[in-house]
């Protein structure tokens, strides 16, 4: 099962490596890991996507909680939540493909953010599955470059990950 | 009070009540050593290798319950300390390790004696710090002691760049009386409802078993454990780390469990219907093959570390909390309750256990003149009246000491159970002796292990810490040889030590007393003589039977009921 774990962590040098080191030392999977500052300069927010059996996910959250720098965490995939990832795709767009790709971009509610006579850069936002679907819809040989931000997420409703 | 960073380090240790600092000087910590020179409260123990400093501090911590404190320099000083830090981490020993670092402006430039200490030690500490501002120094040291000694204890490294300790920069000093961390709140009391459920489950048991780990010793829960288990009348086993947590001479004690545990302890584990695990972590050397671990049992697990619970074995009643208060709560609930364990079922269970005990699984051949290692430990036990502190290294001698020295008190058995660090025993014994100057301290070791930190014999002389070294010398890395005999058709690949030093001369060269004992009949006399030399370290080199193996043995990948007994021994299942 895929889990999205949101973490508030002390904004200290080395805090990120405590988390990534834990995952490599204990052989846990990381699908993606994002870190960015929060409105509280002493805290960073991390979103970690991992997968494993219930037992492994239980161990992952317990081991993360043991790290002294981790202030609070929550497995948002256990509740109703919103998941987003940003992707930019550079594609070869010539002749008839230009129109076709433009149509596809509209269908996925994405945007073309850079245009040259032979290429587009398309910005897509959504859950990981939507981004995967967009890539699948493109002709593979037209894709020049893909960059993805990794997943972030937030709980729906009043509950949240705050101090 | 205005102090320099170096003076702050020393003053913090004084304010923390640190008695001994185990260390080795070097460039990055010279300012701190200069501050140490100007005072007498914190006594510095100069080891001969930084690994020795960590093991000595560790032995001090394990035997006294107080945190062990280490000071080493940057680069090789801290990398040499890593083995000892990892040793303490695996066994959850409270330690604070102060490491020198190159000055802040040159960090990251591959400066002389620079290494990324925080990075290198990260996976083997409870936490670590790099001090970047002298104004944060005292608070960081306070946090280090707080984290090391609370919750599930462990080593904490404080990496201090040299410019932070600059004697010319003085700042106002005040040692914080307490610290809080918003991200660290170890549990103390267990959940009352869970504790009630556990007591009910214990009372419903027909074939109960108590399985105790090192957490009971670390959490000072021996008295509560002994009271509770005596009230219940249940059989009990201790792990290697827990020997002494429940008295070995109590008739409810079935001996150690696990890979080299007793037949009765392992069989009782296999057949029990309720397992009560306290401060234990279901380590692979204890559980054997997981799918067949306690196949009939409902499991209760008390541990201060939530991550220990259901890590390798799913448990039915988890209780997160310090062992002593949780056990005290259980006693209280039990006292207020009229219900008592099922005495009929318990009688039948004890009868079954008695049949397993009749195998006499630790029996060995006493007939010859060649020295049996087990006999040496038995004699050591008798002569010291079971009241010595015993440290050990790692291997066969460690298992024999664990099997044959009956520890009745906690903190008497000092060994590297988790990491299994050869070279631990001698420096650890120095730390134990400093913590308990009037006690008898023995180091049970082997000719391979002892050579890994042999240089600390000089430390033992310098600080007059008389230790009785019991070297079970069989000319092999015995445990390696045993595995090669069992699993590699006796291909003894590099497990034979062809050039063993003359330990008598070696001991004498270091200023100690050396003895070589070659016949079984001389064992007792030698031990008596060595113990009578109260103020001397004595190195007793016992030439023991090189073919002797440790039995019983659960070979890797087998379950508790699949033990290998000594040759010629009859399994109780065949008797029955």
CATH class of the largest domain in chain B: Alpha Beta
| Cα radius of gyration of chain B in angstroms | 24 Å
Query: Which term fits the overall shape of chain B?
Result: globular
Helix/strand structural class of chain A: alpha+beta
Strand content of chain A: 35-45%
| Distance linking N and C termini of chain A | 28 Å
Please summarize the sheet with the most strands of chain A. Answer: 5 strands, antiparallel
CATH superfamily of the largest domain in chain B: Thiamin diphosphate (ThDP)-binding fold, Pyr/PP domains
Radius of gyration of chain A (Å) = 19 Å
Q: What would you say the CATH architecture of the largest domain in chain B is? A: 3-Layer(aba) Sandwich
**Category by helix and strand content of chain B:** alpha/beta
Largest interface by residue count?
Answer: A-B, 20 and 19 residues
Helix share, percent of chain B: 25-40%
According to CATH, what is the topology of the largest domain in chain A? Alpha-Beta Plaits
Q: Per CATH, which architecture of the largest domain in chain A?
A: 2-Layer Sandwich
What's the name of the CATH homologous superfamily of the largest domain in chain A? ACT domain
Shape of chain A: elongated
Number of strands of chain A: 9
Helix content of chain A: 25-40%
Task: Explain what you see.
The complex is a heterodimer of chains A (163) and B (576). The longest helix of chain A has 13 residues. The mean pLDDT of chain A is 96. Chain A has 4 helices and 9 strands. In chain A, strand 6 and strand 7 form a beta hairpin. Helix content of chain A is 29%, strand content 40%. Chain A has 163 residues and is an alpha+beta fold. In chain A, strands 5, 6, 7, 8 and 9 form a 5-stranded antiparallel β-sheet that branches. Chain A has a 4-stranded antiparallel β-sheet with strand order 2-3-1-4, covered by helices on one side. Chain A has 2 domains: 77 residues, Alpha-Beta Plaits (2-Layer Sandwich); 71 residues, ACT-like. Chain A, domain 2 (Alpha-Beta Plaits), CATH 3.30.70.1150. Chain B is an alpha/beta fold and 576 residues long. Chain B folds into 3 domains: 171 residues, Rossmann fold; 166 residues, Rossmann fold (3-Layer(aba) Sandwich), CATH 3.40.50; 171 residues, 3-Layer(aba) Sandwich (Rossmann fold). In chain B, 35% of the residues lie in helices and 16% in strands. In chain B, helix 6 links the parallel strand 6 and strand 7. In chain B, helix 7 packs across helix 12, helix 9 packs parallel to helix 12 and helix 14 crosses helix 15. The mean pLDDT of chain B is 97. The interface between A and B is medium-sized, with 20 and 19 residues.
């Amino acid at each position: 099962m895929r889990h999205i774990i949101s973490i508030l962590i002390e904004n200290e040098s080395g805090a990120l490596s405590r988390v990534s080191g834990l995952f490599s030392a204990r052989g846990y999977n990381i699908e993606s890991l994002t870190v960015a500052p929060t409105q509280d300069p002493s805290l960073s927010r991390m979103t970690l996507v991992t997968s494993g059996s219930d037992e492994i996910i239980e161990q992952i959250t317990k081991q993360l909680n043991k790290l002294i720098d981790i202030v609070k965490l929550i497995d948002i995939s256990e509740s109703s939540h919103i998941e987003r990832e940003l992707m930019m795709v550079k594609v070869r767009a010539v002749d008839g493909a230009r129109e076709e790709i433009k149509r596809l971009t509209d269908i996925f509610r994405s945007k073309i953010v850079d245009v040259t006579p032979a290429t587009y850069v398309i910005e897509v936002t959504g859950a990981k599955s939507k981004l995967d679907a967009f890539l699948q819809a493109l002709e593979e040989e037209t894709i020049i470059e893909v960059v993805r931000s990794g997943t972030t997420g937030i709980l729906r409703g009043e509950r949240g990950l705050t101090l | 009070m205005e102090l320099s960073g170096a003076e702050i380090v020393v003053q913090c240790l004084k304010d923390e009540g640190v008695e001994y600092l185990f260390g080795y000087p070097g460039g990055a910590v010279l300012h701190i050593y200069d501050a140490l020179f100007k005072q007498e409260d914190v006594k510095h123990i100069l080891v001969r290798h930084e690994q020795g400093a960590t093991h000595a501090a560790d032995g001090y911590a394990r035997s006294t319950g107080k945190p062990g404190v280490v000071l080493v320099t940057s680069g090789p000083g801290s990398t040499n300390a890593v083995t000892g830090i990892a040793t303490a981490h695996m066994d959850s020993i409270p330690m604070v390790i102060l490491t020198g670092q190159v000055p802040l402006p040159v960090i990251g430039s591959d400066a002389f004696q620079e290494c990324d200490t925080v990075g290198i030690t990260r996976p083997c500490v409870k936490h670590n710090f790099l001090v970047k501002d002298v104004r944060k120094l005292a608070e960081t040291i306070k946090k280090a002691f707080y984290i090391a000694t609370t919750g599930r204890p462990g080593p904490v490294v404080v990496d201090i760049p040299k410019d932070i300790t600059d004697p010319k920069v003085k700042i106002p000093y005040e040692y914080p009386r307490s610290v809080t961390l918003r991200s660290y709140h170890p549990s103390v009391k267990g959940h009352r409802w869970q504790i009630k459920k556990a007591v009910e489950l214990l009372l419903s048991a027909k074939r109960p078993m108590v399985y105790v780990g090192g957490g009971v010793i670390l959490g000072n829960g021996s008295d509560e454990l002994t009271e509770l288990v005596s009230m219940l009348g249940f059989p009990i086993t201790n792990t290697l780390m827990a020997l002494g947590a429940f008295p070995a001479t109590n008739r409810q004690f079935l001996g150690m469990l696990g890979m080299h545990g007793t037949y009765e302890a392992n069989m009782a584990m296999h057949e029990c219907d309720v397992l009560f695990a306290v401060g234990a972590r279901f380590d692979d050397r204890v559980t054997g093959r997981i799918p067949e671990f306690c196949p009939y049992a409902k499991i209760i697990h008390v541990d201060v570390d939530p991550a220990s619970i259901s890590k390798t074995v799913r448990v039915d009643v988890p209780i997160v909390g310090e062992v002593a208060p949780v056990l005290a709560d259980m006693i209280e609930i039990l006292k207020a309750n009229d219900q008592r364990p099922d005495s009929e079922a318990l009688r039948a269970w004890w009868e079954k256990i008695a049949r397993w005990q009749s195998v006499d699984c630790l029996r060995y051949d006493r007939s010859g003149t060649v020295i049996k290692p087990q006999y040496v430990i038995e004699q050591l036990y008798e002569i010291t009246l079971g009241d010595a502190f015993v440290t050990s290294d790692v291997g066969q001698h460690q298992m024999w000491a664990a099997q044959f020295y009956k520890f009745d008190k906690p903190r008497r058995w000092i060994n590297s159970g988790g990491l299994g660090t050869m070279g631990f025993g001698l420096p650890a014994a120095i730390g134990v002796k400093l913590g308990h100057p009037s006690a008898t301290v023995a180091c049970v070791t082997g000719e391979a292990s002892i050579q890994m930190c042999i240089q600390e014999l000089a430390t033992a002389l310098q600080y007059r810490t008389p230790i009785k070294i019991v070297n079970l010398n069989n000319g092999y890395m015995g445990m390696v040889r045993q595995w090669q005999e069992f699993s590699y058709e006796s291909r003894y690949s590099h497990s034979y030590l062809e050039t063993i030093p003359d330990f008598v001369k070696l001991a004498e060269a270091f200023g100690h007393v050396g003895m070589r004992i070659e016949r079984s009949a001389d064992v007792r006399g030698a031990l008596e003589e060595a113990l009578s030399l109260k103020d001397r370290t004595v190195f007793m080199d016992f030439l023991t039977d090189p073919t002797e193996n440790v039995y019983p043995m659960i070979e890797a990948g087998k379950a508790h009921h699949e033990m290998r007994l000594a040759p010629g021994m009859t399994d109780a299942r065949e008797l029955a």
